[in-house]
Amino acid sequence: MKRISYIAFLLSSVISQGAMAGSCTQSGNTTYCDDGTSYTRSGNTTYGSDGTSYTRSGNTTYGSDGTSYTRSGNTTYGSDGASYTRSGNTTYGSDGTNCTRSGNTTYCQ
User: Fold this and answer.
1) Hey, where are the domains in the chain?
2) Separation of alpha carbons 38 and 15, rounded Å
3) In the prediction, which pLDDT does 33 show?
4) Which residues of the chain have pLDDT under 70?
């Protein structure tokens, strides 16, 4: 869940690129997470070190795992029924998760 919350946070924020706590830090086009995964953006696609990829087309981002995320205003809707709403530097998930960005680091809980 943390990975999905983090991806949704990025999608609802700028699209550069859970109930578990964790953090991810961005450096250039790559984001490194404390669980060992990393995400590298190239054009409209973000590649995960776990083999996943996410490609943006308009307001929708399609995951190689079959998921999709559609942004409407400050809210991102997942194909799994979850939604993520951004308010300031924090994105709140309908599943109770939230991610907050501080500088280059994003903290999820």
Assistant:
1) 2-108
2) 15
3) 85
4) 1-21
Listed in sequence order, the residues at least 6 apart from 43 whose beta carbon sits closer than 8 Å to its beta carbon are none
Decide if 71 contacts 57 (C-beta within 8 A): no
What does the pLDDT look like over 51-82, one tens digit per residue? 988 898 999 989 898 989 898 998 989 898 88
The Cα 50–Cα 37 span in angstroms is 7
Q: Which residues of 29-40 are buried (b: 16+ CB within 10 A; e: fewer)?
A: eebbbeeebbbb
Helix (H) or strand (E) holding 26: strand 22-27
Position 36 scores a pLDDT of 87
Q: What is the rounded CA–CA span in Å between residue 15 and residue 87?
A: 15
This prediction's pTM: 0.75
The count of C-alpha atoms lying within 13 angstroms of the C-alpha of 16, restricted to the half-sphere facing its C-beta, is: 15
User: Which amino acid does the sequence have at 97?
Assistant: T
